[in-house]
From TrEMBL:
Example GO biological process: quaternary ammonium group transport
A Gene Ontology term for the protein's cellular component: ATP-binding cassette (ABC) transporter complex
UniProt name for this protein: Iron(III) transport system ATP-binding protein
Pfam families in the record: ABC_tran, TOBE_2
Domain of life: Bacteria
Organism: Albidovulum inexpectatum
Domain ABC transporter: 8-237
Length: 359
């Protein structure tokens, strides 16, 4: 017995503008009820990919399939309104001259319009808001109306382009969670576009990390965070420290001692990447460092250059001595040593990533 085809499948999608490739051979699929996120910096091709799937832009190469059926190639094209694909944008795009109820009902056929509108407004916690107009609502309320309108026709796929970027930061997490809960209840396949790693980690079942028009890595949030494909991927999700070295005899010398770098030929320049939260700190005790564990390796003597309290944690900046490496460490709660304080640093070797340098 064959399994059902993906709700959305994109194969070898390519788009060029003025001879420049903006989307380069992109392929992925999304199952019903799955939330996938196209994540990457501005200008990497995320929104262009979304527009091609929606049918408002035409690809130069590749195909788009919904439930196993072709909806678009370079010759055949199903019109956008017949693709069973909903759209939700960052500016909400509500009609200012229509009431909330009329906005949600827009595009619905006669029949169960009233019941469907009431059902969705209740599910987005806006019961009784039907007679109001968009200008009477807060940003968060407008976002929920836009979500209800996008879901009203029961689309098989919902495309969301930076939908939370216009909201106050204090509102975002709660509205994201409410949105995700409703999307899961509806069983809609969702493709979310964002440049914010936190948003992707919070909402997505799968992240598609995009750079310069290509998907460079895909996977569950936990996996893509803990096994980045390269230095740039690691840096996109958090601050990083980088120790530079050269491989000799499958080893690389650093202020923290030798690192095993097997499989790389002698002379290869490498970046050893460690996130600030994985640096361990101890005070200088009579000039001797702490007793290292096999996981931590050799401690490095360092001098505090600056310390700042960031709200939930403290950020301490160091320079190693000797060697002059600049490193950052994060510490829970308040930890503000004075500049010039001598401390010892150790790194979680099991939390380090080694990449050949590509400068």
């Amino acid at each position: 017995m064959s399994s059902a085809p993906p709700r959305l499948e994109v194969r070898n999608l390519t788009r060029r503008f003025d001879g420049q490739t903006v989307v380069d051979d992109v392929s992925f699929s999304i199952e019903a009820g799955q939330v996938s996120c196209l994540l990457g910096p501005s200008g990497c091709g995320k929104s262009t990919t979304l527009r091609m799937i929606a049918g408002v832009d035409m690809q130069d190469e590749g195909t788009i399939h919904v439930d196993g059926k072709l909806v678009c190639d370079t010759v055949f094209r199903v019109p956008p309104e017949r693709r069973a694909i909903g759209l939700m944008f960052q500016d909400f795009a509500l009609f200012p001259h229509l009431t909330v109820a009329e906005n949600v009902a827009f595009g619905l056929k006669e029949g169960d319009r009233t019941r469907r509108v009431e059902e969705l407004l209740e599910r987005v916690s806006l019961s009784g808001f039907g007679p109001k107009y968009p200008h009477e609502l807060s940003g968060g309320e407008q976002q929920r109306v836009a979500l209800a309108r996008a879901l009203a026709p029961r689309p098989r796929i919902l495309l969301m382009d930076e939908p939370f970027s216009g909201l106050d930061e204090r509102l975002r997490d709660g509205i994201r969670d409410d949105t995700l809960e409703l999307l899961k209840e509806e069983g809609t396949a969702v493709l979310l576009v964002t440049h914010e790693p936190h948003e992707a980690m919070r909402m997505a079942d799968e992240i598609l990390l995009m750079r310069k028009g290509r998907i460079v890595q895909r996977g569950a949030p936990y996996n893509i965070y803990n096994a980045p494909v390269d230095r740039e991927a690691a840096a996109f999700f958090s601050d990083i420290n980088v120790l530079r070295g050269t491989v000799q005899g499958a080893l690389t010398q650093t202020p923290f001692g030798e690192f095993l770098t097997p499989g790389l030929p002698d002379g290869t320049e490498v970046d050893i990447v460690i996130r600030p939260q994985h640096l361990k700190i101890d005070f200088d005790r009579n000039g001797r460092g702490p007793n290292p564990t096999p996981t931590d390796g050799v401690p490095a003597r360092a001098v505090v250059e600056r310390a700042r309290f960031m709200g939930r944690e403290s950020l301490v900046e160091f320079r190693t001595d000797p060697g002059g490496e600049r490193l950052k460490a994060t510490v829970p709660a308040v930890f503000l040593p004075k500049p010039g304080t001598v401390m010892w640093l150790m790194i979680r070797r099991d939390r380090c990533f080694v990449f050949p340098r590509r400068d």
